[in-house]
Amino acid sequence: MGDPGGIGPEILVKTLADRDRRSSARFLVHGSSSALQEAADHSGIEPYWWQVQKGSTLNVSASHDVVVIDHGGEGFNHSASRENGLLSHSYVCDAAAECIKGGADALVTAPISKESWKLAGKTRHPGHTELLGELFKAKRVGMFFESPKLRVILATVHIPLLDIRNALTIGKIFDAIDLGNDACKQLGIDEPRIAVCGLNPHAGENGMLGDEETRLIEPAIEHAKRVGIDAEGPFPADTIFNRAVQGYYDLVVAMYHDQGLIPVKLLAWESAVNVTCGLPIWRTSPAHGTAFDIAGKGIADARSMAASIDLAVKFACSES
Q1: 0.85 exceeded by the pTM?
Q2: HSE toward the beta carbon, residue 60, CA cutoff 13 A
């Protein structure tokens, strides 16, 4: 359900209010029933779910298409808080455990607040991607964004901008290329064409504006080519996204968070889906945050959540 004080409860309630979508799979929602009820009230939606308390031994009947596993809590602040952080962290961990034990085939997460996690003392992982990588014992994970207009994967994720130069390695860049190539194939692209961004302006201008392109990025691309991946670059980031949108490339590998996410959110805010590559199951989420400023008002746009659920269902069904 994401942060109970954010728009997660609302976009979840709105998305699963669609009867056709509910009939496409069976949904187990880890969250707080009071937040979902409040979201339904603000959105003018009649509750349609069955509810059990967390830890209940009640039989969860297959006749219920949406079951809420209630973690408790009520009266949530529409801002970062310790309570919100403790609950949203527990939702993710319990949902992941459900997948690991075979009780679910895919995982969809609503937005969390990293500040809430920090206030709750959950500072080991800066976000979903890193936490899920550890919970599933994945050797490597990637943050991949799917949208009708543009696909992007990140070589580095939630780290400060000034730390990128020291965090970026040939291995991280290659992993992003390789994981992105696999994700594109799972999406039905037989021979993905991959463009790799440079780190520096003008992709380093032949070393005049930095050496990361020649020292790190080019070797990663060459290694990808040796294993049969159609990767090119490094390209200046201020032009390559246009080429991808025009259809010349199926995926762009960005070196850091905002380099890749600004074009995705500019072009496909309402339809982009965040996919965690490298897990044994499909994990998706909306490509936006908690939006505390509009939470509780019934005006949140649920289209990215709908796209996330639809993509997770599609691939869970295809692999079952």
Answers
A1: yes
A2: 20
Contact 184, 253 (CB under 8 A): no
Mean pLDDT, range 161-169, rounded to an integer: 93
Give residue-wise pLDDT tens across range 113-128. Answer: 999 999 999 999 988 9
Contact 198, 208 (CB under 8 A): no
Say if domain 140-273 classifies as CATH 3.40.718.10: yes
- Side-chain-side CA neighbours of 47 within 13 Å: the count stands at 14
Q: Is 139 exposed, middle or buried (0-12, 13-18, 19+ CB in 10 A)?
A: exposed
Contact yes or no for 111/285 (Cβ under 8 A)? yes
How confident is the model at residue 207, as a pLDDT?
A: 82
What tokens appear for 38 in the block?
């409040």
- The full set of domain ranges for the chain reads 1-138+279-320, 140-273
Q: Do domains 1-138+279-320 and 140-273 have the same CATH topology?
A: yes
Instruction: Give the residue ranges of DSSP H helices in 48-152.
Output: 82-100, 114-119, 128-135
Average pLDDT over residues 22-44: 95
Instruction: Sheet with 66-70: list strands edge to edge.
Output: 27-31, 66-70, 50-53
Can you give the pLDDT at residue 61? Answer: 57
Can you name the CATH fold of 1-138+279-320?
Isopropylmalate Dehydrogenase (3.40.718)
